[in-house]
Specification:
The chain is built from eight helices and seven strands; from the N terminus they run E-H-E-H-E-H-E-H-E-H-E-H-H-H-E. With about 260 residues, it is α/β, with parallel strands linked by helices. Helix 1 packs across helix 8 and helix 3 packs parallel to helix 4. Bound molecules: nicotinamide-adenine-dinucleotide.
Length: about 260
């Protein structure tokens, strides 16, 4: 899948799924802007990619801040002269019984997972359309939802709600951009449990709620996926590169599961 000459912004790119997406888009020929709230880890990732000969730049970014988003879009414009693809990947997770969840907890979850995606889609679409409306190749916005945006699970009500919001927001934007002739596709991606820091948080929660040891908890999480294991961040990255590329030119408003069969039964 060729992304030659395409300018791609990946939020939360310092580690986990975002780091693998960053690597994968570079390998496909894109120019990368990697943003994250974690400055040291983000700079290190970009250093690693630059040493391999890829065009990659880092900017510190808090996706909950409109000002920060404005600076990131301006950085894309100044560094590479525009933007073609946005991967709204930055996200947070927590798990608690509903009665213990405060309004502040709920707002924190929504500020990153939902408001971050709203601000990014709003501001980036204005930049992306400057190029996409003059191009045969569409711009692409890819939003990280989750299987938790499709089916419920205990103790993660705010996470379920935030990822459900991302799913339907993506469809709404896909319809709006198509009707306005922006030539920007918008899709959501729905991973199962993936082996990252966030995957570790999911496992730790299971350990806290049960008598399971670490290996038993991994095995119980693996059993949620008919393929029989957790997903790898690169397996999500492959799907994101496909949605970024012109190979997915007739796909918009879609929800792509990358879940080892989790939601199929
Ligand atoms: N790992 C999983 O099991 C899983 C499953 C389904 C969906 N997802 C989703 O995939 C995405 C990536 O998850 P991951 O597993 O790589 O998680 P992760 O915790 O390993 O990485 C998340 C990244 O987002 C960044 N981030 C967090 N808050 C931010 C903010 N306010 N501004 C900018 N950056 C911020 C973090 O610094 C980190 O680099 C998330 O949206 C997550 O909800 C993950």
């Amino acid at each position: 899948m060729d992304l030659s000459g395409r300018i791609v912004l990946v939020t939360g790119g310092a580690r986990g799924i975002g780091a693998k997406v960053s690597e994968a888009v570079c390998k496909s020929g894109a120019k990368l802007v990697l943003s994250d709230i974690l400055k040291e880890e983000g700079l290190e990732k970009v250093r690693e990619l630059s040493e391999k000969g890829y065009q990659a730049s880092f900017i510190k970014h808090d996706v909950t801040s409109e000002t920060s988003w404005g600076q990131v879009i301006e950085f894309c414009s100044k560094t590479y002269n525009g933007l073609d693809v946005l991967v709204n990947n930055a996200g947070i997770y927590f798990s608690k019984p509903l009665v213990e969840i405060s309004l502040e907890d709920w707002k924190t979850m929504f500020s990153v997972n939902v408001e971050g995606v709203f601000l990014g889609t709003k501001l980036a679409s204005e930049e992306i359309k400057k190029r996409s409306m003059k191009s045969e190749i569409s711009g692409s916005i890819i939003n990280l939802s989750s299987v938790a945006g499709l089916v419920g699970a205990p103790f993660i009500g705010p996470y379920n709600a935030s990822k459900g919001a991302v799913r339907i927001f993506s469809k709404g934007c896909a319809m709006e951009f198509a009707s306005l002739g922006y030539n920007i596709r918008v899709n959501s991606v729905h991973p199962g449990v993936i082996d990252t820091n966030m995957g570790d948080e999911v496992k730790q929660h299971l350990i806290n709620q049960t008598e399971l040891n670490s290996n038993e908890a991994t095995s119980q999480l693996a059993d949620l996926h008919p393929i029989g294991r957790l997903g790898l961040p690169e397996e999500v990255a492959n799907v994101i590169v496909f949605l970024a590329s012109n190979k997915s030119s007739f796909i918009t408003g879609a929800e792509l599961v990358v879940d080892g069969g989790y939601t199929a039964r």
